[in-house]
Amino acid sequence: MIQENSPALAPQRREHLRQMLREGGVARVEDLRRKLDVSVATIRRDLEILEEDGKVRRVHGGAVSMESRLEEPVFENKTNLAAKEKQRIAEEAYSLIESDEAIYLNGGSTTLFLARLLRERSDLTVVTNSLQAAIELADSGPRVILIGGELRRISQTMVGPLTSAVLAQVHVDKAFMGTMGFCLKNGLTTTDPNEAYSNEIVAEQAGQVILLADSNKAEKVCFARFSDFDKIDLLITDRNLSAEYTKSLPKIGVKVRTV
Amino acid sequence: MIQENSPALAPQRREHLRQMLREGGVARVEDLRRKLDVSVATIRRDLEILEEDGKVRRVHGGAVSMESRLEEPVFENKTNLAAKEKQRIAEEAYSLIESDEAIYLNGGSTTLFLARLLRERSDLTVVTNSLQAAIELADSGPRVILIGGELRRISQTMVGPLTSAVLAQVHVDKAFMGTMGFCLKNGLTTTDPNEAYSNEIVAEQAGQVILLADSNKAEKVCFARFSDFDKIDLLITDRNLSAEYTKSLPKIGVKVRTV
DNA sequence: TGCTTTTCGTTCAAAAACGATCAAATTCTA
DNA sequence: TAGAATTTGATCGTTTTTGAACGAAAAGCA
């Protein structure tokens, strides 16, 4: 627990601020000032910084957390951990994107983190089958091309045969793909066959295929398979991935980056 | 984080207001004032803002949620006549839809009103190029098929050549189309050529084409034309449409319904 | 219809919050 | 330790928000 009365170091204090906002969703400057025992000027400066990082959105009188519960419930520790890893994975993925590229994002929480990082990148073209990602980017930033098709409620993505109609007409430099599960034997799998179908088409057409998957996804096998590892150029994952993968994947041509 | 007794942030308060209205469908200014513990002036200002955003419709004595699932009470409201007319037009359009049909909705506010009425209709298939409509229907109700293509920011719709890829593969029984302008001489027009292109394809393929347009749209001519009246089967509009239209349109095969 | 009551919109002044600036305090570094 | 760089808190003028006041408009009623 962090003590309330002694002024924390700046980065630490900002992290605390971020957490507080995240829990409450929203907070007033005055309340934050009292809790952290600093001046309002400092709070404002901190919020400014957090806003630049996209962590919060400032409003008159306070701030609103931007990283609340679109996907994961905040309360559970494990999911929280996964969220941090996903954020880091997304940041690493972001660093790979070059100017004026066309990229693909499929559905899933990790790619959604990435989408959020793209808001200011008006030089990019983002092709996606994720309704959430499209919403995230609808008002600013990159050109957005939405793959048509049937909207699958659970994942809020466009899936199925109709998606191929648009996919056949565009080419992306890099495809960033999330997955429900992966393992050496069965490759990449997800729950819905229609979703798998769309992923499969993308994996075959994209210039580079970059898999974004935290280590929790390892060894998981779902119903529908959409690709083998030989289609994948790079896997971005976290440090907890077992050595089995980090050693054998490079041998079959899949680079691995852990963050 | 936020205490009950400390005044909430303005945006937060407005969100709260919106929720309260949404649950109850309708509320009086005085009741809202007491619940939120602010002055009536503030409530009015908030409602004004929410109305601009299309979240609520103000009526004498209070406001009605536009996001409510319940049937809306009939209230008089002269300030937002257009919204009221659009709502009525949408309700009339809704009455034409039969069981298990596939329908198309293009972008625009009138069709969005219609989309909101479809939330419980899980027997329907809704094809649309409107991101807003898709969001509205994403969690419940009909099967949703989103036309792919480039996302046009201003209208939040998918437009352009890529849309034809999906459109070519589906058939809808009825297409409900909004338009920016219509007149006898130039037919139906909208501002963006890409949007016109998508509309044009739909108008040619749909079983029936039903135009939803309040009388303000009459005599307006925009840059890009997408159809003549001979493609239109029915126009649903309001009572203020001039006799010039109501008389001549039936002669060229366009039924007219005023609500 | 005419009258009363409620609600509305507008205006205005007070209060709250903001951004910018600067000096003091703190931390870092040589 | 001295000096530079960073961080902090206080101040001030400006902007935004709020609540109250008042005439106009709408609704209720006889």
Provide a concise account of the structure shown.
Chain A folds into two domains: 10-65, Orthogonal Bundle (Arc Repressor Mutant, subunit A); 77-258, Rossmann fold. Chain A is 38% helix and 23% strand. Chain A has helices at 10-24, 29-36, 40-52, 77-96, 109-117, 131-137, 163-167, 193-205, 243-251, and strands at residues 26-28, 56-59, 62-65, 102-105, 125-128, 143-146, 149-152, 157-159, 174-178, 181-183, 187-190, 208-212, 224-227, 234-237, 255-258.
Could you walk me through the main structural features you see in this protein, from its secondary elements to its overall organization?
The structure is a homodimer of 259-residue chains. Chain A has 259 residues and is α/β, with parallel strands linked by helices. Chain A has two domains: 10-65, Orthogonal Bundle (Arc Repressor Mutant, subunit A); 77-258, Rossmann fold (3-Layer(aba) Sandwich). Chain A is built from nine helices and 15 strands. Chain A has helices at 10-24, 29-36, 40-52, 77-96, 109-117, 131-137, 163-167, 193-205, 243-251, and strands at residues 26-28, 56-59, 62-65, 102-105, 125-128, 143-146, 149-152, 157-159, 174-178, 181-183, 187-190, 208-212, 224-227, 234-237, 255-258. In chain A, the strands form four sheets. A seven-stranded parallel beta sheet of chain A has the order 6-5-4-9-12-14-15, with helices on both faces. Chain A has a three-stranded antiparallel beta sheet with strand order 1-3-2. In chain A, strands 10-11-13 form a three-stranded antiparallel beta sheet. In chain A, helix 6 (131-137) links the parallel strand 5 (125-128) and strand 6 (143-146). In chain A, helix 2 packs across helix 3 and helix 4 (77-96) crosses helix 5 (109-117). The two termini of chain A are 26 Å apart. The model of chain A is unreliable at 1-8 and 68-80 (pLDDT under 50). The interface between A and B is large, with 39 and 33 residues. The first copy, chain A, binds a DNA duplex (30 and 30 nucleotides) through residues 7, 10, 29-30, 38-42, 44-45, 60-61.
